[in-house]
Amino acid sequence: MGAYWAAAAYCEPGEAYNIGGPTSIRVGEFLDVLIGYASVDIPITADPALLRPADVTLQIPDISKFFETTQWRAKYSFEESVEYLLDYWRERVKSAVLG
């Protein structure tokens, strides 16, 4: 069963639930994973004017409430999810360009 289906079937309307996997990842590590799947060289530069002093650099998902309610677990790793997402958007862009 998919996470959103489980949410619709078991979660209380109006309640907040976090859906995700058990992986904690830094924003920079997420960028590294994306670049690892790139088919071209992607230069990285940081614009100091866009950096905020209180930016969150580590995402720690607390999925316990969702799991306790639904017993749902992620089927795919973070890396597999990123690869799937990139492949999806690559196909969308290719379809838009080629018509």
Notable characteristics:
two-stranded antiparallel sheet, 2 strands, 99 residues, UDP-galactose 4-epimerase, domain 1, mainly alpha, single chain, extended, 4% strand
Map the helices and strands.
Elements: H1 3-10, E1 25-26, H2 27-36, E2 58-59, H3 64-70, H4 78-98
Antiparallel strand pairs: 1-2
Biggest pleated sheet: 2 strands, antiparallel
> Averaging pLDDT over every residue, what do you get?
89
Strand content: under 5%
Total tally of structural domains: 1
Helix content percent band: 40-55%
Gap from first CA to last CA: 34 Å
What's the total helix number?
A: 4
Radius of gyration: 17 Å
CATH C-level name:
Alpha Beta
For this structure, the CATH topology is UDP-galactose 4-epimerase, domain 1
Strands side by side in the biggest sheet: 1-2
User: What is the H/E order?
Assistant: HEHEHH
Structural class: mainly alpha
Q: Using DSSP, what is the number of strands?
A: 2
Using the 3D structure, state the CATH architecture.
Alpha-Beta Complex
Can you give a write-up of this model?
The chain has 99 residues and is mainly alpha-helical. The chain has 4 helices and 2 strands. The chain has helices at 3-10, 27-36, 64-70, 78-98; strands at 25-26, 58-59. The chain is extended, with a radius of gyration of 17 Å. The protein starts with a helix and ends with a helix.
